[in-house]
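BUG-476 | component: ligand-complex export | severity: low

The export step for adenosine-5'-triphosphate jobs runs without errors, but we want the raw record kept on the ticket for reference. Input record follows.
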Amino acid sequence: MKLNTSFAELKQNTLFKLLSEILEEKGMKGYVVGGYVRDHLLGRGNKKDIDIVTLGSGIEFAKALQKKLKGAQPVQIFKTFGTAMIQWNDIELEFVGARKESYSYESRNPTVKPGSLEDDQNRRDFTINALAISLNRVDFGTLIDPFNGVEDLKNQLIRTPLNPEITYSDDPLRMLRAIRFATQLDFTIDPKSFEAIQRNVERIDIISKERIVVELHKILETPKPSVGFRLLEKSKLLERVLPELTALKGVDEIEGQTHKDNFYHTLEVVDNLCQKSENRWLRWAALLHDIGKASTKKYKPQTGWTFHNHEFVGSKMVYSLFKRLKMPLNEKMKYVQKIVMMSSRPIVIAKDFVTDSAIRRLLFDAGETIDDLLTLCEADITTKNPKRYEKYMNNFTMVREKIVQLEEKDHLRNFQPPVSGDVIMNYFGLTPCPQIGLIKEAIKEAILEGEIPNAYDAAFEKMKLEGKKLGLNAHA
Ligand code: ATP
Ligand code: MG
């Protein structure tokens, strides 16, 4: 891989020049370190978060900079971590004093002592994240690379600066970070490092759920999340983090009949979907759309393998999974549940002769999620047979077209009953009672069946008719 090793433009950068001046004034030393340097070398655009390490107090330096940096927000200080942050335009500057860390077995939060630049580079997770660029006048713009991080960037390798066994055990979050970087950058994890991860998987249990989820999100937000999920599976981290997914692994055979491996199928679906949608929660829905299949799997001699009701079971599991991982139990979770719950509906419709009423019901039930649901169904086509692939895709195109046609007529996406309960009560002179619900249901059914349009007058007539059937009379 070719690297961008020129730092000429960095030296011209007004921000870095200012940093350098202030360091000089204060008689301090400072370096740009970590992700910014890595991504510069990789030519991965201009990163908006910049980490600066200083010899001496990072907080003090941040305060001095803030005074001179036009348009900078006030310094935010994180006392417990000894770090400071300045927001400047769309850039986030993080400051930390160079430090030495020592870990205890129970926690990933080390005790820290001031240290040298070398100490600070030693405590970093990967060689490619331990690169520093000097901001000091004497050697402004010089790359400091004690662990051959540049070589590793060239070879696309994730490696820890020190003994991986200790690095991962000290802070097990690094295991997930290794896999996340491998996925984001399309790098390989050094075999020694990967073996160390495999030996330390149970250490992940000391990591907070929130931290784990941050990494899962980052993996899911790459163009090809399967890379990360395969590594998670292979290392056996997945079993601890998302056992619902590992439960989908494997193929059974009875009477010569097999079913597909739902784990690898799921990964394919996720990758396909990521080509079409950036929506984080739709990506989660793709990842979880088949999780109900593990517990519902049955073999029946006449029909073969079935996963009866797996969508319902799966959508219930979404709740417990989100809860366990301390993910939001709000409308995002409900959205994922809904997509999982409905994930087979369009497929069933597309397979048969597509009737208007089936489409109306789909629209009615899916509401705003209809487009995302169809996107998932299209991503779910993983057949390697080109003829079949085309046929299935065409079926969904037809469903989409029908939806557009019916939408123009009936506006079912956000269905509101055209005749309200109040109107029904007024007309028949009723107080709240079950008949109102029955009439409303009959009107809705008539609309979905296409017997009447989704409009007030037609619904009002239908109401009168239904009332009569129930023995109700118009109120004088
Ligand atoms: P990105 O921001 O693109 O995800 P990054 O490399 O900037 O990548 P951050 O999480 O922002 O990652 O961390 C900044 C730097 O801090 C890293 O480059 C690394 O040097 C160091 N670092 C972060 N987390 C850890 C950790 N758990 N263990 C050791 N070093 C870490
Ligand atoms: Mg960063």
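Assignee comment: Attached the raw record above. Residues 34-35, 49, 51, 124-125, 129-130, 171, 173-174, 177 surround adenosine-5'-triphosphate (ligand 1) (CB under 6 Å).
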